[in-house]
Specification:
CATH architecture of the largest domain: 3-Layer(aba) Sandwich
Helix content: 40-55%
CATH class of the largest domain: Alpha Beta
Structural class: alpha/beta
Keywords: DNA-binding, Transcription, Transcription regulation
InterPro entries: HTH-type_LysR_regulators, LysR_HTH_N, LysR_subst-bd, WH-like_DNA-bd_sf, WH_DNA-bd_sf
Oligomer: single chain
Protein name: LysR family transcriptional regulator
Largest sheet: 10 strands, mixed
Pfam families: HTH_1, LysR_substrate
Organism: Candidatus Scybalocola faecigallinarum
Shape: globular
Length: 300
């Protein structure tokens, strides 16, 4: 299976028409049709449902399209980084994964300063959960991840960046909305949204149980933005990192500080120990690592 064949396949999948795909690729239609037939024969599956006017992907074809895009992205990125290593220039696309709240809390400070030092670096930012980011770093899809602890087990290098206190958010009409600070036991009197990621979820359960005999988790979230409308609609209170203040509308929700014992998590930068970082990622890693002050708390 050649990279060229995968590019041909993705062009047909995108255009849903061999003639249009051939024009886009600047090749004639017969060689393109032969390449696709050979690919199906090589894989032993049907990739297309061929209609009169358009071509659709089978389930196998959809899976291959997803994997082919990853393969080609990695191939292009690898070629780009090898070129940079040869020239020793810090430029090109930096593949960075970061969680939703860490993005709001850290990137507005870090990226502008880094960009002033390395103006030829561009950014491919992928936002997801800490678990998903760790997996993509391990697979080489992302160069560097910025995640929230607990740290993943495996072959990772890590640098501590900061600590962040967690707060509660509630609708403007909630009974606790106008309190400056509440106890954990007060929170536990209302339905709660908590993070779904393990083992952070277990840590939150332990924290809640230590202060209250009973509590009701009405839902769990992977991305906090997914449940903000539910909180605004007074369905429950969400426990989340305080950096949510930087990208949510305080006209819809209230931010409530939590009394001792507070829930505090660390934020870390990770990369795969077994993989050589490209020049731009190494420059970013060194820049961020040198910027860290011990016991730093992320500003709200």
């Amino acid at each position: 299976m050649e990279l060229r064949t995968l590019r041909y396949f993705l062009a047909v999948a995108s255009e849903q028409n061999i003639t249009h795909a051939a024009q886009k690729l600047n090749i004639s239609q017969p060689p393109l049709s032969r390449q696709l037939a050979q690919l199906e024969e090589e894989l032993g599956v049907s990739l297309f449902i061929r209609g009169k006017r358009r071509i659709q992907l089978t389930e196998e074809g959809k899976y291959l399209a997803q994997q082919a895009q990853h393969i080609l992205n990695m191939a292009d990125h690898t070629a780009q980084q090898l070129s940079q290593m040869k020239s020793q220039d810090v430029k090109g696309k930096l593949l960075l994964g970061i969680t939703e709240t860490c993005s709001a809390g850290m990137l507005p400070d870090l990226l502008p300063r880094f960009s002033r030092l390395y103006p030829q670096v561009s950014y491919d930012l992928w936002c997801g959960s800490s678990s998903d980011i760790s997996q993509r770093v391990e697979q080489g899809i992302i160069d560097i991840g910025i995640i929230r602890e607990p740290l993943p087990q495996g072959n990772f290098e890590s640098v501590f960046l900061s600590r962040e206190t967690w707060i509660a958010i509630a609708s403007k009409g909630h009974p606790l909305a106008h309190k400056e600070k509440v106890t954990v036991s007060q929170l536990c009197q209302y339905p709660l949204f908590i993070p779904s990621r393990q083992p952070l979820q277990n840590e939150v359960h332990t924290w809640l149980a230590s202060q209250s005999g009973t509590y009701h988790v009405i839902g769990m979230y992977n991305q906090i933005s997914s449940i903000v409308p539910l909180v605004a609609g007074n369905m429950g209170i969400a426990i989340c990192a305080q950096s949510i203040k930087k990208y949510t509308d305080d006209r819809q929700i209230s931010y409530i500080n939590i009394a001792e014992p507070q829930l505090i998590t660390g934020i870390y930068m990770i990369c795969a120990r077994s993989k050589l970082l490209p020049a731009n990622a190494r420059a970013f890693w060194d820049f961020v690592a040198s910027d860290v002050t011990e016991d730093t708390f992320l500003s709200p």
